[in-house]
Design a protein that fits this description.
This protein has 218 residues and is an alpha/beta fold. Helices cover 48% and strands 17% of the residues. Strand 3 and strand 4 form a beta hairpin.
Length: 218
């Protein structure tokens, strides 16, 4: 059995950072599900397809060789880590992510990352939809205000300025959108371990999740 840890949660909960650290510590494969939609958006954009050309976009998926290496996102060995963060790519990715056909078509690509010795993945529907039988399913969250604060700090490190009030409103709106969408909404049930890390450091968050994992991996 391939051991899988899924870490789901809202925007700026720290799930990506935590998942990457845990994957490295365990020597497991890592999957950033959000990057998958951005990569598909980039490839669609390069082929001059818009969000309405769903069938054409789906046909692009089998030719995407996606890798996550040393905090970099590679498609067909090209480093696209920064390119997929561009605003126009993010907007297209968001639109594609709401389409049920696109989400279903990407399942096989996401499942392909489940290889030995194991997988750590983060996203919004990893434990609920993509890997519902994962050994450990975590729902990582924090208060909207704390997540806004973290996001502002991230932007400052990139030399960008943002008002925490604006970021907070954006996070609240995103939470509502993600939790109420018709396709794969952000949600968890009793099979998840819920962790509010509002007052926890990244290190403490990692320690807690690894503690849960080790208690299950007997």
């Amino acid at each position: 059995m391939i051991k899988i840890i899924t870490i789901d949660g809202p925007a700026s909960s720290g799930k990506g950072t935590v998942a990457r650290i845990i994957a490295k510590m365990l020597g497991y494969n890592y999957l950033d599900s959000g990057a998958i939609y951005r990569v598909l958006a980039l490839v669609a954009n390069r082929n001059n397809f818009d969000e309405n050309e769903i069938e054409k976009i789906i046909k692009l998926i089998p030719n995407i060789n996606l890798q996550f290496i040393n905090n970099k996102v590679l498609i067909n060995e090209e480093d696209v880590t920064q390119i997929i963060r561009e605003e126009k790519i993010g907007m297209l990715a968001s639109k594609l992510g709401k389409n049920a056909k696109i989400r279903n078509a990407l399942l096989q690509l996401q499942h392909s990352f489940a290889k030995l010795p194991g997988l750590v993945t983060d996203g919004r529907d990893m434990g609920s939809v993509v890997f519902p039988k994962a050994l450990l399913k975590v729902f990582l969250t924090a208060t909207p205000k704390m997540r806004a604060k973290r996001r502002v700090e991230q932007l400052q490190l990139l030399g960008k300025y943002a008002k925490i009030e604006d970021i907070l409103q954006g996070i609240i709106a995103r939470d509502m959108q993600d939790s109420t969408r018709n396709v794969a909404p952000l949600a968890y049930d009793s099979s998840f371990k819920v962790l509010d890390n509002s007052s926890l450091s990244i290190e403490d968050t990692v320690i807690q999740i690894l503690s849960w994992f080790k208690s299950l991996d007997c």
